């Protein structure tokens, strides 16, 4: 008997769509399965004002059509005007605000260096109920790259939470047991996204047997015990953990380089991978919460009315190895195991 699973249409609570030819090439990969996505603002130059976000929204919709809803974010800088941000939220232009520590990742140079300076912005956001989405890594060169998330929680996030307890915060793309524990320790206004790839790979996948640039992303995958903690959180049914793929396309020449870019491109096969991972964990019944219900719950949005059906097949589903875009080819994330779940 064929096994199927029908869930409300999922959303992606953390997505990079880029711009121009790359946007045109890869946005359909997300729009095919997802109804909505939180769109990252780290373009060059970044999306810093309500006007920038409105214009970018238009460019995305021109590619995807109205069947896909981009939920826009602003890129927080030390020059961000709290009034512009609150106005953009009140007008429905933006859903959230993204915090990049300066230098933490791709196009984060305009990010925040002095977190104390952001206090008036955080207070205005708390007052208006605007979520702060954190790229949770410190950039101090003395901190080992594998410790940067845990140190961010202690040195940056926890002090912000203590000073502005009403601020709604999403810890983006968590990669450690420390982050899972921190979510558990906090009240309901703290949530966390988990990517598809961090449920699949640990740091050995990147480094053992030759360096695998398509498994390199930030925050970098940690040791296996951390992956297990993420898997437990994602499959637990706890409503504060939800899907944010962080699907982040770079062309192959930018990835397969002496100084390769960070980012895993998972938009194409995410739902198949997740179904496989949840099935293998004996938690298929928890996929609906993780991909379709917990995110809207945190963001106070309705669950999508449409549905998505997955079917378990006898022969593995084959996805394209690359998506050809006008900017160049983008390699699709290879989970390294067969996928028996296909999206109908
Ligand atoms: O791996 C990543 N890629 N992590 C990020 O935080 C940014 C993203 C990108 O924009 O390429
Ligand atoms: Zn990201």
From TrEMBL:
Enzyme nomenclature, EC number: 3.5.2.3
Q: Name one GO molecular function term.
A: dihydroorotase activity
Enumerate the residues binding Zn(2+) 1.
14, 16, 98, 246
Report the cofactor remark: Binds 2 Zn(2+) ions per subunit.
Describe the reaction catalysed, as an equation: (S)-dihydroorotate + H2O = N-carbamoyl-L-aspartate + H(+)
A Pfam family recorded for this sequence: Amidohydro_1
Using the record's annotation, list all stretches that form the Amidohydrolase-related domain: 12-309
For biological process, the GO terms are:
'de novo' pyrimidine nucleobase biosynthetic process; 'de novo' UMP biosynthetic process
* Location of the active site: 246
Q: Which Gene3D superfamilies match?
A: Metal-dependent hydrolases (3.20.20.140)
Role this protein plays? Catalyzes the reversible cyclization of carbamoyl aspartate to dihydroorotate.
Per the record, the similarity remark reads:
Belongs to the metallo-dependent hydrolases superfamily. DHOase family. Class II DHOase subfamily.
**What protein am I looking at?**
Dihydroorotase
Gene label: pyrC
């Amino acid at each position: 008997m064929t096994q199927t699973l029908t869930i409300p249409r999922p959303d992606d609570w953390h997505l990079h769509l880029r711009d121009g030819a790359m946007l045109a090439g890869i946005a359909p990969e997300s729009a095919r399965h997802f109804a909505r996505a939180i769109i990252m603002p780290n373009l060059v130059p970044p999306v810093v004002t309500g006007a920038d976000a409105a214009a970018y929204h238009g460019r995305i919709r021109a590619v995807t059509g109205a069947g896909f809803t981009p939920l826009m974010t602003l890129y927080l800088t030390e020059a961000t005007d709290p009034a512009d941000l609150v106005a953009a939220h009140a007008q429905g232009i933006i859903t959230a605000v993204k915090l990049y520590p300066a230098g933490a990742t791709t196009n984060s140079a305009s990010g925040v260096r002095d977190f104390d300076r952001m206090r008036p912005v955080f207070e205005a956001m708390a007052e208006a109920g605007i979520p702060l989405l954190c790229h949770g890594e410190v950039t101090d060169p003395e901190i080992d790259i594998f410790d940067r998330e845990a140190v961010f929680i202690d040195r940056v996030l926890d002090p912000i939470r203590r000073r502005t307890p009403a601020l709604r915060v999403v810890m983006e793309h968590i990669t450690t047991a420390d982050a899972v524990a921190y979510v558990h320790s906090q009240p309901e206004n703290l949530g966390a996204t988990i990517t598809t790839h961090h449920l699949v790979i640990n740091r050995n996948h990147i480094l053992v047997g030759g360096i695998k640039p398509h498994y390199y992303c930030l925050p970098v995958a940690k040791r296996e015990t951390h992956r297990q903690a993420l898997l437990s959180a994602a499959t637990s049914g706890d409503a504060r953990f939800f899907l944010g793929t962080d699907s982040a396309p770079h062309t192959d020449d930018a990835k397969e380089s002496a100084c390769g870019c960070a980012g895993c491109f998972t938009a194409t096969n995410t739902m198949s991978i997740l179904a496989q991972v949840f099935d293998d964990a004996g938690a298929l019944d928890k996929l609906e919460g993780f991909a379709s219900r917990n995110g809207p719950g945190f963001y106070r949005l309705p669950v999508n009315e449409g549905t998505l059906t997955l079917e378990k097949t006898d022969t593995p589903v084959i996805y394209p190895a690359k998506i050809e875009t006008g900017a160049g080819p983008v390699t699709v994330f290879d989970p390294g195991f067969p996928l028996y779940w296909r999206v109908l």
